[in-house]
Protein DA1-related 1
Amino acid sequence: MPVHFPMGYRICAGCNTEIGYGRFLNCLSAFWHPECFCCHACNLPISDYEYHPKCEVCNHFIPTNTAGLIEYRAHPFWIQKYCPSHEHDGTPRCCSCERMESQNTGYVALNDGRKLCLECLDSAVMDTRNCQPLYRDIQEFYEGLNMKVEQQVPLLLVERHALNDAREGEKNGHYHMPETRGLCLSEEQTISTILRRPRSGRGNCTMNMITEPYKLTRRCDVTAILILYGLPRLLTGSILAHEMMHAWMRLQGFRTLSQDVEEGICQVLAHMWLLTQLESASSNAPQTSLSATSSRLKKGKRSQLDRKLGEFFKHQIRRTLEHIRVTGRFPK
Ligand SMILES: [Zn+2]
Ligand SMILES: [Zn+2]
Ligand SMILES: [Zn+2]
Ligand SMILES: [Zn+2]
């Protein structure tokens, strides 16, 4: 039988004293002083809005630090909260979206040491043939800007070591920080290109990778565009849009630009292409080129995910542009 008290007369279930007219919580069929409603794990009060956060990596309550405060790390875009210790305990991050691997979802290992979350894997572009529809899409994007690349530039998907080797082989090569994921080549080189996607075995992608040497011949100032394999479609596309701009500028005879200026221009083009993709996704227009990857997810969920990933890649580019705005330089 419910007990009725006159207005304002409430007993705290924590300390058994009257609450009066102060703030109170109504939780677990009882009234509490906000400071008396404490977390079982750490004995700190759980105020109205702040709950003791659970770590999204180990699924435990995030421990208090030596000062008795709950200290957690959170990714600035994904807001994934985790214990600070996971930054040093070898917890892998997805090489594409940067989220940390949670202990109840396995990431897929690529054969060059990178790890990929299942959501990024779902639209990952894995081999050279797989990437051609996306290449045509980006060529059309450049044509739409009246910046058609007239020359036939081969686009090759490669492993990380092949990309690094090719970078070493360029006379005027440039580095992309924090990691090179695409290159626009000008030298004649032989590139080990991925002919067939690796079959994903249990928990890894190392089986049956078939590569083939590809001899570049110099017909113009650009011999090839190389892209790191295994990245989701929107990221692969934005890297490709960036490298296409290097190619376009080289072929148009832009030779005296400083590297910072050139990189900044290329990032703007990558950003523009991502925007067109996000717009077409939100207007539900049929996409002109889906990667050949068979999607394990339903269409609706897929496009929602693509959208979120696309927003993240956009956020990364904005971060770079913001760095340029503040420092006047491209991040090193
Ligand atoms: Zn109390
Ligand atoms: Zn944790
Ligand atoms: Zn990911
Ligand atoms: Zn670049």
